[in-house]
Structure formats: C-alpha cells, structure tokens
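Translate sequence into structure tokens.
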Amino acid sequence: MTINEALENIKSLNHTQNTEIINLFDAKGRVLANDFYAKCNAPLFTNSAMDGYALKASEFKNGLKVLKTIFAGDMSECEIKSGECVKIMTGARVPKGADSVLMVENSIIKDDLMYATSDNLKVGEAIRYEGEEYKKGELIIKKGVITDEIIMILASNGVFNIEVIKEIKVGIFASGLEIIEPYSNGFGVYNSNAYGIYSAFKSFSKPYYLGVLKDEYEFVLNSLKGALDNFDLVVSIGAASVGDADFIKKALDELGFKPIFTKVKMKPAGPVSLYFKDNKYILVLPGNPMSAYIGALIYARALIYKMQGIVYEKPSFLYPISMDLKIKNNKENVVIGNIINDTFVPFNNAKLSSGQITPLNKCTHYIICPIDCDIKQNDKVRVYEQSI
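Result follows.
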C-alpha cells in the first residue's frame, strides 16, 4: 500500500461525532460542528472608512457648511442638504444625503466653510456600505477547524457560544522492555517518542500518556481493553513490526479490530498500521524515533480531523530541489530538509537513520519521493511543512 492509498482509506472513514457547546475563548483549533450563516449584515450600517467630511460628491468643489461632527458609535439620525457636510470619524454612520467622504487631509476650513483641496472625489469614495462584505443569511463559514480569523467573524456576528465537535481523546502508550522514562535512573532507552508525540497531538486533540506496555501478552491485551473504554483513539508507539515480543497485532485480533491499512511501502515508518472497531481506532507507530515521528507526521492529523468529520489536506508548495536524488528500494521515501534560497535542500544528502532524532530538529520541511525515484537537480518537488 502507498502513502496516498493509506490516506485515502482514512478519508473514507465514517466516524460518529459528538458535539458540545464552548465559548470563543476556548474555540481556537476546535472543529465547528456546522456551517455558519451570517446573523447580520457586514457592515451593520453604512459607515465612513476614514476621518473626513461626509458630503455630496457633486458639491465637493464648493464651500460647505459643517453641521456637526459624527463620532463612531453615534447612532442618532442625521441628514445633510445641499451646501452642507458633516465632519465624520472612521466607523461613524454616514448621514442621509451624503454619498462620499472627503479625507480630512484633503480639506481646509476658511471663513467657517469647508473646502476641498483635492481635484477629484468619486461617489462612494471612503464609504463602506451596509452588507457589502456579506449579507444576513449568507453562508460565510464552513464546518472546519476554527482559526483566529473565524473567531473574529463569529464575534462580529454577536456569537459567543458555539457548537463544536468534541475533542478526540487520545491514549498514548510506549512499548518495549528496554524503554525507561526520562526521569528514571535505570539503564535503558529513554522514552523520547511518547513525549514528542504527546506534545504534537496537543494542538489538535486531547492526549493522555498511559505509560509503557510490558512485553507480556496479557498485560498488552488488558491495557488496550482499558484504554479503549476511555479513549477514542489509542496510539501505540513500538510493537509495530513482527518481532517475537510484539503482541499488539495478536491482541487486536482477539479484540476484533480490523485493519484500515498495515505495512505501508514507505521509509521511514513502513510498519505503521491503523485498526478500527465500533468507532474506536488504534494507530500503531514504529518504535524508532525517526519512524515514529514520520508516521505521526503523515497520518495523525488526517486521522483525527476525519474522526471529527473533516478531510485534512496538508498544505504544500512546489520548489526546485538542490541535488539529484535517486533512491531504488521499492518504497516511497520521506526526505526531510530545509528551504534555502527558495530551493529544497535535503538534509545530509537524504541519508538518515530511523533511530535518529536530531535531524528532525534541524529540518523544517519534507518531500515524499515516489517509488524508485530518479529526481534531477532543479526539478520541482512538492514540499510540506515538517509539523505534525
């Protein structure tokens, strides 16, 4: 199975979502449960785009009597007649009879009359008309991830509480007899994977670290049972291959889980697998740090967003590559690197070990090379941000 085929399998999932009501202060990064239709016009009323004088454009060359000053927030009725204008502040309501606003910088006051110093003034100049951005009842936000900009739009519609998809609760296990925690004093392999994956997942889910799975079948089986009672998604880091002590697959078979995909033809992270049963999912990542991170990088956000009812397409850009790249291993290869002078530069000439971590800290982007790729220097490649 290719990377794209595995991602397409994720896109085809049908996951039942639950919703809850939250306020805008907690909304960033959450998923809006429904399309949003404008509750009011924007702007709410016709207003001035700048400080100046509201007047009739046909009279701007004449000396005009200044009736009053209108400030933002002054909603009292006002109307100008021929030979009149009002001084107006940015955001203030335009009075009846006015069809343009003259910038204050283009005016002078002489003998108690306002005169324009500019040569031209068009009808509608410096005026923001009611409903010109959008009108009440118009679809303005589609169901999806809530950003800062969306929060501003919702607030501008008088919305404070919104319905969102409940966060996906993720239980994260490390796996392996050799794994010890960073705060331990014993001898072993420090558990870097779970902490990095946990940190990455915090931006788009609700992760919990559940500890290290022992290399004992009954322990693995019972741990998975308990986790599945409390979490929507369980992530197991390690035990993704076919070693004698890798009990995950056996436990999943006993629990009745079915594969969505297993053993993708990719490097690193080839042993990555995804299983499901009854609206619950288990993502099995390889144990080597580079492989674990790449597996999460490619699949985690796509999976969790799909569990919330939206299809995630990772943003990408085309850049020329700095070198020839020929890889013949019958796999798709994820190559990390950096954008330097508008060119993608593979890290260490695309030579990596799946057990390394520091290259991830030195790189900002990645590409996915097709099976048995033969890319030439300056060929355009599709580049993604290296962010889970």
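Note: The mean pLDDT is 95.
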